């Protein structure tokens, strides 16, 4: 009887320990060290997950905790990205309270599930909205300071603008965040839709710790092949810490061809460089990079036939990689 009791105690402890091994428990607070984003043990965490779509249009209905619960358990994501629309109708500029609450709902659900979350200012013209961005990220930093799950992505895809413009914007927003949250990882964009990371690497932001840079690609896009990887390779060689906050299996417009061979080349490159990523995107819009078929349930529980070709592929990759 004593041996059985000890065995049951051991099993109970083992199960409890296993259940606590969420991505955040395993990796802890992220930081930048020697040109890399690393975890509490000083090694790249290689987080892999999904980006929600714009928090308007078709993707908005999936901004709920039930979807976060589902993709945490079924897709096995270790990170999500909450892409808060800024400039379009019904985005943050028009509905700041509603949009901020949508993001809070996802972030709180991510924290409960023990996964990481990118709070993404999903804007192509961030330099026109500096004060609004500072207001938003000041709110987020006050609420989530020191929460290891939270990463601030302060400008999604600057369009055709200069690095000086992006850098000036970033310094102002970073300064606001650091008033309240001195440590959590901050991701900075780069010109030309987060492709000119080589330019950023020649003149990186200084004076702040734990700053990384977003790099985006669309795996099947004919303009996103060897030359784009070469730009990122140069940035990495220059010691710029990269984070793939958005990538898709199709082309840059969200549609186009899903070329699995080109996608595999990109994924190998990402894995070889030990980079973390979130895949675009959780929506049921009729396009190549959408993960869901039109009409997929808004609270998760998706069957395979409710996933697109991209959804089936990405789910399989996540479940295989995030063991």
Short summary:
40% of the residues lie in helices and 16% in strands. The protein is α/β, with parallel strands linked by helices and 323 residues long.
Provide keyphrases for this structure.
323 residues; alpha/beta; 11 helices; single chain; 10 strands; disordered N terminus
How does this model look, in words?
The chain is an alpha/beta fold. Helix content is 40%, strand content 16%. It has eleven helices and ten strands. The strands form two sheets. The protein has an eight-stranded parallel beta barrel, surrounded by six helices. A two-stranded antiparallel sheet has the order 1-2. Helix 5 (130-144) links the parallel strand 5 (116-122) and strand 6. Helix 3 (65-75) packs parallel to helix 4 and helix 5 (130-144) runs parallel beside helix 6. The protein is globular and about 50 Å long. The two termini are 36 Å apart.
The mean pLDDT is 94
Tell me about the largest β-sheet: 8 strands, parallel, barrel
Q: Report the order of strands and helices.
A: HHEEEHEHEHEHEHHEHEHEH
Q: Helical amount among residues, as a percent range?
A: 40-55%
Rg, rounded, reads 19 Å
Number of DSSP strand runs: 10
Outline the low-pLDDT stretches: 1-19
Strand order of the largest sheet: 3-4-5-6-7-8-9-10
Helix/strand/pairing class, anyone?
alpha/beta
Continuous helix count: 11
Strand content: 15-25%
Please give the alpha-carbon distance between the first and last residues.
36 Å
Shape: globular
